[in-house]
Write a structure and sequence with these properties.
Layout: H1 2-11, E1 23-25, H2 27-33, E2 36-41, H3 51-60, H4 64-69, E3 71-74, H5 78-90, E4 94-98, H6 104-112, E5 116-119, H7 124-138, E6 141-142, H8 149-165, E7 172-176, H9 181-193, E8 198-204, H10 209-216, H11 239-248, E9 251-255, H12 257-271, H13 281-293, E10 299-304, H14 313-324, E11 328-336, H15 341-348, E12 354-358, E13 366-374, H16 380-390, E14 395-397, H17 402-406, E15 422-430, H18 435-443, E16 448-455, E17 461-469, H19 475-485, E18 488-491, H20 496-501
Subunit structure: Homotetramer.
Family: Belongs to the serine/threonine dehydratase family.
Cofactor: pyridoxal 5'-phosphate
Length: 503
Amino acid sequence: MLERYVKRILQAQVYDVAIETPMSEARFLSKRMNNTILIKREDLQPVYSFKLRGAYNAMAQLTEEEKERGVVTASAGNHAQGVAMAAKQMGIKATIVMPKITPEIKVASAKARGGKVVLKGDSFDEAAVYARQLVEEKGYTYIPPYDHPEVIAGQGTIAMEMLRQHPAHIDAIFVPVGGGGLIAGIAVYVKYLRPEIKVIGVEAEDSACLKAALDAGERVILDQVGIFAEGVAVAQIGEEPFRIAQHFVDDVITVTTDEICAAVKDMFEDTRAVSEPSGALSLAGLKKYIQQTGAESQTLLCINSGANTNFDRLQHIAERAELGEKREAILAVTIPERTGSFKQFCKVIGRRMVTEFNYRYADSEQARIFVGVQLKDPDDRAELMQTLISEDYPVIDMSDNEMAKLHIRHLGGGHNSEIQNEQLFRFEFPERPGALLNFLTNLGQNWNITLFHYRNHGAAYGRVLIGMQVPEEDKEKVSEYLNRIGYRYWDETENPAYKLFLA
């Protein structure tokens, strides 16, 4: 298998459109983490992503008849741009089926490169089904985003460049994983030439389809897929990539949204590149590997796999980066409701900076504050909590509470003692023009809405927090109704952030 794939990689036709991207040393991060950290800059490709390599190589193998009929693909963005640019270069008609939730920057880019874009469905899987229909109806050739030997070989040229650019010792290469085409191409080339180098996959913890498959010993389909890092939001690893990964991938690391945001910031500070969440995924995994293993003085490589992100998302990324780096704690603290009590609280936390403070008067005895505190290092959070407890401050750590970070920080203090039988629900729905109105229409008017919070983060999915007055006899009925309308939701009525600041 290795020799056959290495031959494909060496013969891959990618450089008619792709460039050999440089490798940048992350000097600030290397110094901070006591390792040599190198970043392969695939964000510098003409389509700002590595996907161009595999798309062009697969299309270069088409017969003249297939070229004449045209090609079709399904993609959430980066592969679409690669196919569109490759088709333009080769004079082939390309139809790109993209989910309706695809960020506008990726839709516009695919159109600008000559692709005919069709928006279909709310997920990659729905878009892929429609693309396959077009193959049957129009005779197009389908160009898969990852599950194809020539696509894998095209992506494998990245490994060829990396080993040539850094012929000295390498301890590990960290690779972002969605459908698996990239890690398959890198793994076969690296393990053939330098088998001592570890190849480690990195997945978002809410879309870890490779890890699930390796754990099960077979490909599985995830029940739900998180979409913050939409470039790797895949429910099932590709068949051929999984076959390769079983033999040649050494480990898989999963990372949180906050850890991805921290890596986006690190990537910017060291290279001035604004990567998309999936583009910074492998750096997030590299950092977690160092933290988990205590690695020092090693040479570790990762890939900035793409930079196609909406500008609107940067606010959300910046908001979460410090939490991901463990340089900020979000706390719910109860302090006395009297003049000077916040000043006293600030004295107790010492020289740590307050990064956020939300408060609203609730009663004459106690004030509940939602406060962000800057930390010296990851271990400082436990020390801060212990300090507050020793000073008799009731405190709850909200740093890992998703509802608190998404919504409560913008709503803190909204108590209303007149509301009875309130239940709180957090929703996600596909984000596109008119989506919020459609969501409200589907929600119906069966129960009185007592709280509503929505922020558009420029992401694929909108996030809403809703309070509703639900009489005791309707509690089962509301669950049945919400399940029927089909949006992902969580019952947050017992969430401590709600009880402290809103209930």
